[in-house]
């Protein structure tokens, strides 16, 4: 059964993790993938997510997929208890997940039931397509990305940061433009989406 916890801000919603896991995350090892943040100017939310996991007693296994060798990447994604992908630029993240081969490894692990935690870009990339997010994230950060097809781990598009600054205006524009095209779930920074098999719950 696929299990995904999709958030806009993990530091603001990490307290939902025990309920999502149906148990304490203490001593769980997290494959911590901050790749989406590489094109960004600040990594504050990455550090906040790292601290949130640490405060819950998790162990961090840093995995930068843009530079990791294939064996290190495979070993981390197979042995670690949880997979976490940070926020940042969604287009760059998808480019690097494909280029490195991490996309296929993640699909395999999630298909086998390993919990996936995605924050912002890490949540958006799980859907069928990420093209709708170009008003928020510049595609220029991913010059080698030839398709906006996402990982397909869920069958809806996740719009993060709804009505949350500094994205309040752009999220409303995206919702107005794309909200009726295909299934879309929009969440604020204080909300999260839990997916268990075919069941979706807003937390």
Would you spell out the secondary-structure blueprint of this structure?
Elements: E1 3-7, H1 10-13, H2 17-21, E2 29-33, H3 44-55, E3 59-62, H4 70-79, E4 82-85, H5 90-100, H6 102-111, E5 116-119, H7 121-124, E6 157-159, H8 168-178, E7 184-186, E8 192-196, E9 199-202
Parallel strand pairs: 1-5, 2-3, 2-4, 4-5, 6-7
Antiparallel strand pairs: 1-8, 8-9
Describe this structure in words.
Belongs to the peptidase S51 family. Keywords: Hydrolase, Protease, Serine protease. Pfam families: Peptidase_S51. This is Type 1 glutamine amidotransferase-like domain-containing protein. By secondary structure, this protein is α/β, with parallel strands linked by helices. Helix 4 packs parallel to helix 6. The strands form two sheets. A seven-stranded mixed beta sheet has the order 3-2-4-5-1-8-9. Strands 6-7 form a two-stranded parallel sheet. The chain is 33% helix and 18% strand. A hairpin with a 2-residue loop joins strand 8 (192-196) and strand 9. The chain has helices at residues 10-13, 17-21, 44-55, 70-79, 90-100, 102-111, 121-124, 168-178; strands spanning 3-7, 29-33, 59-62, 82-85, 116-119, 157-159, 184-186, 192-196, 199-202. It contains eight helices and nine strands.
In short:
This protein has 203 residues and is α/β, with parallel strands linked by helices. The chain is built from eight helices and nine strands.
Oligomer kind: single chain
What radius of gyration results from the CA coordinates? 15 Å
Question: What is the helix fraction of residues, given as a range?
Answer: 25-40%
Q: Measure the end-to-end span.
A: 19 Å
Q: Quick one: biggest sheet?
A: 7 strands, mixed
- Calculate the mean pLDDT score and round it: 94
Per the principal axes of the C-alpha atoms, what is the gross shape? globular
DSSP helical segment count: 8
Structural class: alpha/beta
Q: Report strand order across the widest sheet.
A: 3-2-4-5-1-8-9
Q: Unreliable stretches, pLDDT < 50, 5 or more residues?
A: none
Strand content: 15-25%
**How many DSSP E strands?**
9
Order of helices and strands: EHHEHEHEHHEHEHEEE
